Amino acid sequence: MEGEGFTIVSIQCALIEFLAAIRAGKNYRHRNPQGPYEYSASRDLFVKFLFQTAPFSNFFSEADAGEYYSNVRCALLHEARTKDGWIIWVNGSVPVDCQKKVIYRDKFQSVIESYVEDYGLNLTKEASLQEAFLRKFNDLAA
Fold first, then answer.
1. Distances 135 to 10, 18, 22, 58, 141 between C-alpha atoms, Å
2. Total number of domains constituting the chain
3. 16 in Cβ contact with 127 (< 8 Å)
């Protein structure tokens, strides 16, 4: 078997982009993004989130995050496969091993859940996160 969990990791990648957009208070616009709070290409948003935001930053350098974006996120969402030797397994001791190019989907899910819990706590305390959250959700509600 070549891997396990393409659908789950695809959903995780979509969720990571959404979480990154909420944290930054940015909204996706397919064409002609306006101002600093809109984007039409997700690479920078996704990559920065993985290598700059805990707990993901414990597992990704900027280069690793870029490779993950191209060979996992984009490959899964656009071609329903991983590329450049990346594989997906159910269980492992770490969420992702960028050197071996392995995503352990269940551990990775735990990291996402940990981030969401911490984000929720920080959202009650940090004005900048609150402002970004409102920007994102006001756009979603429009």
1. 26, 13, 8, 28, 10
2. 1
3. no
- Domain-located, residue 1: no
Q: Give pTM, 2 decimals.
A: 0.92
pLDDT digits (tens, 9 = 90+) for 25-57: 999 998 888 889 999 999 999 999 999 999 999
Is 48 among the domain residues?
yes
Confirm whether 75 is domain-assigned: yes
Residue-range definition of the domain harbouring residue 44: 6-141
Instruction: Express each pLDDT in 92-125 by its tens digit.
Output: 999 999 999 999 999 999 999 999 999 999 999 9
What are the helix (H) ranges across 38-124?
A: 43-52, 62-68, 75-79, 105-123
